[in-house]
Amino acid sequence: MSKFAAGKGFAVTALVAAMSFSGMATAGVTDKDILNDQATTGDVVSNGLGLRGQRYSPLKAVNTDTVKDLKAVWSFSFGGEKQRGQESQPMVKDGVMYVTGSYSRVFAIDVKTGEELWQYDARLPDGIMPCCDVINRGVALYGDLVIFGTLDAKLVALNKDTGKVKWKKKVGDYKAGYSLTAAPIVVKGKVITGVSGGEFGIVGKVEAYDAKTGKIAWTRPTVEGHMGYIWKDGKKTENGISGGKPGQTWPGDLWKTGGAATWLGGTYDPDVDLLFFGTGNPAPWNSHLRPGDNLFSSSRLAIDPDTGKIVWHFQTTPNDGWDFDGVNELISFDYNDGGKTVKAAATADRNGFMYVLNRESGDFIRGFPFVDEISWASGLDKNGRPIYIDSNRPGNPAAATDGKKGKAIRAVPSFLGGKNWMPMAYSQDTGLFYVPSNEWAMDIWNEPVSYKKGAAYLGAGFTIHPTNEEYIGVLRAMDPKSGKEVWRYKNYAPLWGGVLATAGNLVFMGNPEGYLMAFDAKNGEMKYKFNTGSGIVGSPITWEMDGEQYVSVVSGWGGAVPLWGGEVAKRVKHLNQGGSVWTFKLPKEDS
Ligand code: CA
Ligand code: CA
Hints:
Layout: H1 3-21, H2 31-35, E1 56-57, E2 71-77, E3 91-93, E4 96-101, E5 105-110, E6 116-121, E7 140-142, E8 145-149, E9 154-159, E10 165-170, E11 185-187, E12 190-193, E13 205-210, E14 216-221, E15 227-232, E16 235-241, E17 266-269, E18 274-278, E19 299-303, E20 310-315, E21 331-337, E22 340-348, E23 353-358, E24 364-369, E25 377-380, E26 386-388, E27 409-411, E28 425-426, E29 433-438, E30 440-446, E31 460-466, E32 473-478, E33 485-491, E34 499-502, E35 506-510, E36 515-520, E37 526-531, E38 541-545, E39 548-555, H3 560-564, H4 567-571, E40 580-585
Parallel strand pairs: 1-34
Antiparallel strand pairs: 2-40, 3-4, 4-5, 5-6, 7-8, 8-9, 9-10, 11-12, 12-13, 13-14, 14-15, 15-16, 17-18, 18-19, 19-20, 21-22, 22-23, 23-24, 25-26, 27-30, 28-29, 29-32, 30-31, 32-33, 34-35, 35-36, 36-37, 38-39, 39-40
């Protein structure tokens, strides 16, 4: 070998070594990394700190004794004039944080220093139609890709080291009201996404794409009557009509614009090998136009990740007339019942009831209210179907003397929900769910409406108002076995951010007043709070680096509440916007 060849070889080796030191030449995120995410505390590579979405970390250096010393180590600004709601959950891998901002932006940040490595701004067209602020809830990581959904309904995969686009796919037509706001998830090499747009009469669906190439693998509509497809060797093949055939639970052609948007994305349980996606309201909101159950709206769906087939469904609000949706996360957990392990999953619905299901079959195990007042149903029957109070459904405009405005009623919860999108957490230590919830009511009435592409398709009007002077938000510790509330923390403004539970006997969450707060997981005593300068509507994470535990959360007030909140919006109008991510740890001497 010549001297020159040897020299060249050395240079390449040195370059690779240098890249390794800066964390840039690693293989990236594998399926195994994602499946093990909850247990591997050195990174956060899935939405929900594990595909089950438990938002539980086994870390405990930060605990009820030490959390009082938690200090901010850096804050990174999303900058620009683009602020509004920041609902992202950051990811951390190999010393880099990947976090999204409002208006479909992605940032890569050095977690040691808080310095920006790169930023990607999607060029959004005029005429995007996000219903509920220009938010984004986070990225998926796979291989050397950072994948996220945009407000013009595209999936975009970026190179993790440069932020350059590797592939881009159109998931839906933004001119028809489709948009993407949820964090996609990666299961067995496929990136899985839902869609937003239920307020515009889109047809909800769940889609899987090859995460490396962006090639579509399958699509599953979530409204009865629409054909699903699977791609084999690049060829599109029919894969069964959702629900078997059209028109069974819908009148006329309404299923063609039936909503059931899968706007919050999903979770996955490897144990039963099922995806769990929730579906939003049937369109339009005026339920008198669509007598029937309107499948698969306001439901939880279990979907085969390999084929996109619906394995089971559980509908929380049949013939939904309040925009309760049914998208809230279904979190898998096991519990012991008389020596037997029950493979369960729990969800806290906008409609005010919390449900525990058998996650293998979708069978109803139990359900119970998690809010103080429910006006529209007197309870649940043995199958978990609500027992409606007919007089508390908004009236039929066709029955009104002018035929224009149906009887207004007071409904509790309001359509913003007993709990909205903000994810709850499940602690494996306490066996409790920590549910971010709100106490509010609405006056709601129905109006005539017909579908027009790209226009709001509600047929309803509403005003939201608080139910008391002292608080709207309530963080609740709920026992999924007894249905009992173990403790509560009351918050003046509505809670709109996610929750994190840790083995340090702590529950973290932020509030619109700007505080990152930590509570004793057993009794709810507040152990820590720190003001981040704007309202928190994002979801906190924790991880460890060089033997130290870190906590990060995004700050930036916005989301649906200031846009839709009626009387409630007045209560929070003094809150300042922002856009930043904060990172905390204990001082060295404490750890
Ligand atoms: Ca991990
Ligand atoms: Ca909705």
